[in-house]
Each structure stands twice: as C-alpha cells, then as structure tokens.
Amino acid sequence: MPTNIEIKAYCENKEKIRKILLSIGAGCNGTDHQTDTYFHSKSGILKFKEGSIENMLIHYIREDKKGSTESQVHLYPTNPDSTLKEILAKTLGTRSVVEKTREIYTKDNVTCHIDTVKGLGDFVEIIAKDNDGSISIDKLQEQCNQYIKTLEINAKHLISESYSDLLQQNNLFSQILVDE
Fold first, then answer.
1. For the chain, which terminus, N or C, has the lower number of CB atoms within 10 Å?
2. Residues in domain CYTH (predicted)?
3. Residues 158, 57, 90, 117: is their CA dihedral positive or negative?
4. What fold is seen in the domain 3-179?
5. Domain locations along the chain
6. Tens of pLDDT along 127-159?
C-alpha cells in the first residue's frame, strides 16, 4: 500500500505560494474544480473525488495530528460517468460533501495543492509520496519539512483535520449560534 507523509495548513497568500512553487521548479498540472463525497466507513476515510483532472475513490488511514502525518492510501481511478458514487451513497450513506478549487503542482514525488474550499477558505497541502516502497518514511518526512520551510508555512497554521471534519465543525458551531 502506498505511503504518504502529508501536511495541511491555512494559506494566507496563495500568490506567494504559487510563485515559490514555480521558482523551485514545480510543474503546474492545472486547476481542478473538485467535489469530494465522504462516506461512512468503519475504518479510515473513504471519499469519492470528482473533477476534470482527478477522479478516484480514495481510502486512507491516518492520524489526525498537526504537522506532518503518515497515511496509508488506496486509490481507485474512476470514470467521470461512473455509478460507483451512487452505489456507495446507497450502501454506506454520505457523511459530507466538500467542494473546492484545487491548483495542482508536482515536483518529483511531492505534490502540492493550493485549495480554496467552499465555506472554509484557502489552504496549502503538501504530500510526499512513496508509491513503491523505495523512499523511507524519514526521507518523506524530510521532504515535507523542507517544503514547510521553503513555502514559509507558519507552524500555527498547520491543521490536523480533513476538510470534511472542518466543515462539520463549522456547521455545528453555526447551529449553536442559531440556537442561542
């Protein structure tokens, strides 16, 4: 199973992140409008990603902790017209839906995303990937740490939750305010 080391942080300045990524030779793979549908799952997180660039079913297991996090990831490529999402929704139930615009940058085995998430704001995500067991966890960790420094990400902006969890927290907070 592929292993990733990932970080996610609030992004104060997308233009600055863009410029830094391009200056270090990261290639821009484009901008994708994506809808992620999260399903109820007995273990890990199961989501169906729909976009014009990326379409896949993703299952991953990771700790929710600030800073870099190790994830075990299964990816299943799908077709945009697949009925798989409908089948999963009927059998497992939908937990939440996240809409975002994602800029995708890659350099070697590292992918960086600049995300604008509906209802949440702007984020940067760094994913150092080992798809075949040839890169050690320490090396992946080192790569993430280097990107944190290079992109000048403030430690206080690091987050541990998924976008789905953050949206659910926002909805709960909003409901509390309405009820008061």
1. C
2. 4-134
3. positive
4. Hypothetical Protein Pfu-838710-001 (2.40.320)
5. 3-179
6. 999 988 899 999 999 999 999 999 999 999 999
